[in-house]
Amino acid sequence: MAPEVTEHLTELRTMAKRLRGIGVTGIAAFLIIAATAALFTPAAALLILLWAWVSRTPLRSLGLYRPRSWLVAIGAGITLGIAEKLIMKALIMPLLGAAPTNPHFSYLAGNPRAALSFAVYAIAGAGFAEELVFRGYLLERLEKLLGTLAWKQTISIVASTLIFASLHYQQGLAGIENAAILGFVAALIYVRFGRNLWLLVAMHATFDLSALYLIYFRLESSVAHLIFP
User: Fold this and answer.
1) What is the value of pTM for the model shown?
2) Where are the domains of the chain?
C-alpha cells in the first residue's frame, strides 16, 4: 500500500476516534447536532446517521438493529403507544390539571390536509427522528461521558428526559409534562429491554397518531373525562 494511502487511512481512523470520543471534536459534533435538533429534529437525525458513518459507530449502538421479530417489536410498540395515549389522556394529564383539549393542536380537528401532514411527521419526524436523537444518540453520548453503571444510567435517563421535555416548551406546561413522562418511559424501556429503537419508533408514532385521531374526530374531551367526569 502506498505511503500516501496509509497516511490518509490513519487520518480517517484518527478522526473517527475523535468523533466517537468526548474530546473537543466529539463535543463540537454533539453541539452541532443538539443545535440542529432544537431547530428541526429530522435534520439532526440525518446528521447523526452521517456522524455514525464518519465516526465508524455501529448503528447497533444507536438502537438501529434488526429485532428478533419485527412483528413482536412493531406490535408491542403499537400496543404500548395506544395504551400510553389513553392512560395519559384519561388519567395522568387530568391529575396534573391539564385542559381536556389541547389548544396547540386544535387546528387539526376536522382538517384532513393538516391531519395528513401531521401524520407524516408523526411517523418520520416524531417516531423515527426524535427517538434516534433523544434515545438512540443522546443516551449513547451520555453513557459515553458518564459510564454504564446502574446509577449513572439513571442520571443519563433523567438528563435525556429533561432535554427532551424542555424542547416542548412551545406547547406550554402541559406539553412539557407530557413529554417528560413519555420521554422517561421511552428511555427506561430502551435501556432495560434490549436497546432496540424500532419498538420506540412504533410506540412514539402510534402515540402521536392516536392523539391525532382523538383531535381530528373531536374525541379528546370525552376521553379526558372517562375517569374524572
Assistant:
1) 0.93
2) 1-57, 60-224
